[in-house]
From TrEMBL:
It comes from the Bacteria. It comes from bacterium (Candidatus Blackallbacteria) CG17_big_fil_post_rev_8_21_14_2_50_48_46. This is Uncharacterized protein. Pathway: Carbohydrate degradation; pentose phosphate pathway; D-ribulose 5-phosphate from D-glucose 6-phosphate (oxidative stage): step 1/3. GO terms for biological process: glucose metabolic process; pentose-phosphate shunt, oxidative branch.
């Protein structure tokens, strides 16, 4: 069971029920995975009575199919911070101390800004002297949702603000797409099986695909699908492509992931239109309403310039609003160099390893076998294994990241150097989008993305792997 905690949030009252944190809390509550003692205190400038605040929370709970209970009054509190006066901050400090003692929260505080500009929140935390952990017991952590929409200079400025109050080990930066379930499965498969390490390099693997799709509809307020999805894709890439860590220890794993990010081949602005594309979901309702579809797809070809992966292309794609949650990793192995089977299409018999994570963990290995007794033609067969007993959803995996934060595990949270490396690398891509130099294509909701995305594979004997029953 996770330790007791007080979630301290800052923002508008209407933003908390729509936040990822609130959805995590409801989901974990249904699973009985929340700490036995916890509370959530929202600080904001909006004038609001206790009854009005309770109505906001109760309405959201009803939307989620949950009944409002009287004991929920102790879970969600609201405090107006209007003038930031000494008297006001003293009252706020007393309320926090009261909740801590009344609910036996053991001095554990998790700060969660609801707004992208969290400077005011940091000033309140500093004024209350809450950022440093107490000497006896208790933790102080801050959870940030990626991306922090900013250029590299702005991002570094935000990092300096954070580090003025918090040490790096207190800061948890969460990007959508990764979860403990994925980390454990990948590390177990790759590093506990001697068969994989000799194959995990450019000499054996011709190309790698990473496909991340989910049911979540496109957020029309999101300024860029690139900013929303690419950090998660690059984090996945770094986990897949990293060298073996020296220890099964979080900083050792994060160090190896950072090395991959630092080895990404820089994007040439003149080549970006050939390396990346955006897609928009073709919706009849939007077209009839004469509304331009929002970005909902990103496809990209990149290279890692290091000894392990040099000249092996990685193909990344992400789509929102697809029929089901998907995370598929596909490894295309080099074709054989002999000429014994010229009659067969090399694309049909190429060896591929597919690792799928949702809706269940699944492995699929494609091999070429004789098509008959008296022929040299080949046919492809698939060796399959799947863990049907432990089906997972992307939402459940994302919920688990909150528990990791409460327990202080940082493996899947982005470190400052990693997020700055990602921002520096994607800056040319963001600029190309702003200048409308990225090609955009339409696609249907029954597809992974636009058919034009096949062009990213150039002349390789490969194409996007498509899951069955998609």
């Amino acid at each position: 069971m996770s330790p007791p905690v007080l979630f301290l949030c800052y923002g508008k009252p209407e933003d908390l029920p729509e936040s990822k944190l609130f959805k995590n809390l409801l989901s974990l509550s249904r699973q009985n995975k929340l700490p036995s003692h916890w509370a959530c205190l929202l600080m904001g400038e909006t004038p609001l009575t206790g009854e009005e605040w309770n109505q906001i929370i109760a309405e959201k709970l009803r939307e989620e199919g949950l009944e409002w209970q009287e004991n929920s009054l102790t879970k969600f509190e609201y405090f107006q911070v209007a003038e930031h006066s000494t008297q006001e901050l003293t009252q706020l400090h007393e309320l926090i101390a009261h909740l801590n003692v009344q609910l036996d929260l053991q001095g554990n505080f998790l700060f969660y800004p609801l707004q992208e500009d969290f400077s005011e929140f940091l000033r309140i935390i500093h004024s209350l002297g809450l950022s440093r952990p107490p000497e006896v017991r208790g933790f102080r952590r801050i959870l940030l949702e990626m991306p922090l929409h900013s250029d590299l200079a702005g991002l570094k400025s935000k990092q300096r603000e954070l580090h003025d109050l918090f040490r790096e080990e207190q800061i948890f930066r969460r990007s959508y797409g990764l979860c403990p379930y994925i980390l454990n499965a990948l590390i177990s498969l790759r590093f506990s099986n001697g068969i994989f390490e000799p194959l995990w390099n450019r000499h054996q693997i011709q190309a790698v695909e990473i496909s991340l799709g989910d049911l979540t509809p496109v957020n029309r307020e999101q300024p860029s699908f690139i900013e929303e999805r690419l950090p998660a894709l690059l984090q996945l890439l770094s986990l897949i492509a990293m060298d073996p860590p020296v220890l099964r220890e979080e900083q050792a794993i994060r160090n190896e992931m950072l090395k991959v990010l630092l080895s990404l081949r820089n994007l040439d602005p003149y080549e970006i239109p050939e390396l990346a594309m955006l897609g928009r979901l073709k919706s009849e309702s939007l077209l009839q309403a004469d509304i331009e579809p929002h970005e909902s797809y990103l496809g990209l070809r990149i290279h890692i310039d290091n000894g392990r992966w040099n000249e092996t292309p990685f193909y990344l794609r992400s789509a929102a609003g697809v029929p089901q949650d998907r995370l598929d990793l596909v490894f295309h192995f080099h074709p054989v160099s002999n000429r014994l089977f010229q009659e067969s299409d090399p694309l049909d018999v190429q060896n591929t390893l597919v690792i799928s994570f949702f809706p269940e963990l699944k492995l699929e290995l494609s091999l070429g076998v004789p098509a008959g007794q008296n022929t040299t033609e080949l046919q492809a067969v698939q060796l399959n294994w799947k863990d049907e007993a432990n089906a997972k959803s992307m939402r459940a995996g994302f919920d688990a990241l909150l528990l990791d934060c409460l327990e202080g595990r940082q493996e899947l949270f982005l470190r400052a150097d990693a997020i700055e490396s990602i921002e520096a690398w994607i800056s040319p891509l963001k600029k190309a989008r702003e200048q409308k130099k990225l090609p955009r294509y339409l696609y249907r909701d029954s597809e992974w993305g636009p058919s034009e995305a096949e062009s990213l594979f150039e002349d390789l004997h490969a194409q996007w792997w498509e899951p069955e029953n998609f």
